[in-house]
Design goal:
With about 425 residues, this protein is mainly α. It has 17 helices and 6 strands.
């Protein structure tokens, strides 16, 4: 922060020139803000540097907000122009492109503009191509992409949206590290190749997984492609076909059923974990629920007084992974005992599956209950599927319990609760909770 540290009237101050790319939005020229710390009281500027760092962070946040607001305004004007042009039977095209169309179309557009009259501030620029396309920078890519994806995000819970954003945010942060904050139209194939080379070095030197690099490349490719289609930006597909070869598919890890019965479900094995976390482990062991499905249960979806006690997996306040994920799972064995102790669900972890997974995985590690690093809380779902297969449970019932698609013609309403309960009782762990 030494570059932004200045002196004024006996006080340390923050001094910074407004960058050229933001001068149209911030006309202050040179910013001078007092730290309110006297030079005499802080001659080495130790405290002042901390204040300057804070003022600089606030200023850069302000500039980002200005750019985002400007981009949003331009984007909305552009979308409005596209909608208006389509309503009049035209596609929206920039003025230079309109001028190259055939004379009949140009005449039709001019006629529409004349009919609109001078007072219509939307139609004339829409049909004549006078509204500039929005511009986006790498730093605003996520916000712009999220704006386009709003319809598909509407049904997600806040935790699901966080998980959706995080890998994209990481990919953008990595791209900024390599090429800086460019306008999207300025990104070249060379930039994309530099990004791929940067990842290749990390794979070799830091032993990062190739799959991690390919995820970054895939997210960036999709975001740029989606924005290009939405706003007709004319972007080149610079990240297309850049995936690195050699990606190894990680084999799923499942606990051995005997290990679950003898170790995970042993008395006192999970002492120290809170009651809700232990109950979710018991529930997943007998039902194969995904972590997010277990943590989303509430009194509304827990049916203990039914003839066949069960839980309902529904998209209430969150988006299910697949349409087949909506299902009813009977409660047997330790799952039934656990849910009888928690008839209203798990409020501590509601819409917070990541926190639960981190806690449980750490607890399993410290108790020597993870045979390998690939064994996690989620492994109980894989164990559940293996147990169903070992018991020769019909494929249709397995699919109904797992929430998987059943690849055969569907007849009737599927396996009943009773049929599913009978299947689960065949594999229930013969242990009692203490």
């Amino acid at each position: 922060m030494g570059a932004f540290l200045g002196r004024r009237d006996g006080y340390w101050c923050y001094v910074r020139r407004v960058p050229s790319e933001i001068t149209e939005l911030d006309g202050r020229g040179i910013i001078k803000l007092s730290t309110r710390i006297r030079i005499a009281d802080d001659p080495r500027a130790i405290r002042a540097r901390k204040v300057v760092a804070r003022l600089n962070a606030e200023t850069e946040t302000y500039w980002r907000d200005l750019r985002s607001a400007e981009t949003a305004n331009v984007s909305e004007r552009y979308r409005a122009a596209c909608r208006r042009a389509r309503a009049l039977g035209f596609d929206y095209a920039p003025a230079a492109e309109v001028a190259e169309r055939d004379l009949d179309e140009i005449a039709s557009r001019l006629a529409a503009a004349v009919r609109a009259g001078q007072s219509d501030g939307v139609t004339r620029p829409a049909v004549l191509g006078a509204v500039p396309k929005p511009t986006f920078r790498v730093s605003t890519l996520l916000e712009a992409f999220e704006d386009v994806m709003r319809p598909s995000l509407a049904s997600m819970s806040e935790d699901q949206r966080r998980k959706w954003r995080n890998p994209k945010r990481r990919a953008i942060a990595n791209l900024l590290t390599v090429i800086g904050d460019k306008d999207l139209l300025e990104i070249t194939r060379g930039d994309a190749l530099d990004f791929r080379a940067w990842w290749a070095d990390r794979v070799l030197v830091e032993e990062v997984q190739i799959a991690t690099a390919n995820k970054d490349i895939g997210h960036l490719n999709k975001m740029l492609r989606t924005l290009d289609q939405q706003h007709r930006l004319g972007l080149d597909p610079v990240f297309a076909q850049l995936r690195m070869e050699g990606e190894e598919a990680r084999s799923r890890s499942a606990f051995e059923p005997d290990f679950v019965a003898a170790r995970l479900l042993a008395p006192n094995a999970l002492d120290g974990l809170n009651d809700e976390a232990r109950a979710i482990i018991y529930l997943m062991a007998e039902t194969g629920l995904r972590v997010s499905e277990a943590t989303s249960l509430t009194s509304e979806t827990i049916k203990l007084n039914h003839e066949v006690p069960h839980v309902q997996i529904r998209g209430i306040g969150r988006k299910l992974k697949t349409p087949q994920s909506e299902r009813d799972i009977p409660l047997v064995g330790v799952a039934l005992s656990a849910m009888q102790r928690h008839p209203s669900g798990f409020p501590r972890y509601l819409d917070n599956a990541a926190s639960l997974s981190a806690l449980v995985n750490k607890a399993l590690e410290t108790r020597d209950l993870r045979p390998t690093k690939n064994h996690t809380l989620y492994s109980l779902r894989h164990t559940f599927e293996d147990r169903l297969g070992a018991a020769s449970i019909p494929e249709k019932i397995v699919a109904a319990l797992m929430g998987h698609k059943y690849y055969r013609p569907k007849y009737g309403s599927g396996p009943s609760l009773t049929m599913k309960r009978d299947a689960l009782e065949k594999i229930a762990f013969q242990v009692e909770l203490v």
